[in-house]
């Protein structure tokens, strides 16, 4: 199946052409960071206006790079939610128009499912079911039990900030530009992760949920203290990063004991983090559960992952171009009626 993917849930205007949910013929992403960085975060109004300005050209660009005419496509896959509503509607309206005009099938994909199926892009080996997915991005931190492409459930989530959000807020405290994850990652490489003992959120009773607002606040108070003013920023970055990674891998390990998982997937923008990747790989080796991490360009938001999810979910996400709508709160679990057809 040859699919065009469109992703505009947040601030990346992304398009892709993917064959069989695996082979990426084109992957186009126009990052809007330059427009948002001076505000220290994403401004929704600016994001949707940028999508509007960039998306048509991005669709053409992906088709050209793939050497494919629009008539050769087997369908159009678009992120229907969750995300910023003003951003989502630009992608959904564009995909609807394309599907309606060409008569091609339209697939309405959940952005978080996309992050999971990023693990299948340009890889020979695939995670076997059931697998556990750790999704860590700027908007989400959750563990997902995946039985099949259409049967998945969230088994743990953050109670407050997403891991990426904690990176972004802490980076701001350290005077690093938005988005903060890459800056902290880089700075932490020359720092000592044991320099400051920042608090780790503990698992509560039977819950696998996590929390990251405490560690961010601890960094804030530390930086205001005498010891903090004297501390090397690299040490603070490395210690903060270690605290976040510890919590994520702790919950991953606990969740993995609850079902006979045959694989684990680490995905989302924060999966680009070098310390998290190293700790995840070490955990995988220790437990013997095969670990999968998408290539960096497929960890952060992209449209190839949306096409990959649509390819595997097929009829369950097939949508009517006249009625489908963007849904900023799109439920994670697919309705039973669509799964059964
Ligand atoms: O998946 P993504 O591109 O967008 C969302 O769906 O949110 O994730 C963006 C998040 C940002 O918070 C960014 O700071 C974080 O991923 N991030 C990182 C790294 N690269 C990106 N966090 C930690 N270390 C990194 N190397
Ligand atoms: Zn994302």
Notable characteristics:
six-stranded mixed β-sheet; binds 5'-O-[(R)-(carboxyoxy)(hydroxy)phosphoryl]adenosine; alpha/beta; 2 domains; Nucleotidyltransferase, domain 5; single chain; globular; 11 strands; binds zinc ion; 341 residues
Describe this structure in words.
With 341 residues, the chain is of the alpha/beta class. It folds into 2 domains: 2-117 and 299-340, ATPase, nucleotide binding domain (Nucleotidyltransferase, domain 5), CATH 3.30.420.40; 128-294, Nucleotidyltransferase, domain 5 (2-Layer Sandwich), CATH 3.30.420. The protein is 43% helix and 18% strand. It contains 13 helices and 11 strands. It has helices spanning 33-36, 44-66, 85-102, 111-117, 163-173, 181-188, 213-224, 226-230, 233-256, 274-287, 296-299, 304-313, 336-340, and strands spanning 2-7, 12-19, 23-31, 75-81, 106-110, 131-136, 141-146, 152-157, 263-267, 291-292, 318-319. Strand 7 (141-146) and strand 8 (152-157) form a beta hairpin. Helix 2 (44-66) runs parallel beside helix 3, helix 6 (181-188) packs across helix 9 and helix 9 (233-256) runs parallel beside helix 10 (274-287). The radius of gyration is 20 Å and the shape is globular. The mean pLDDT is 95. The protein binds 5'-O-[(R)-(carboxyoxy)(hydroxy)phosphoryl]adenosine and zinc ion.
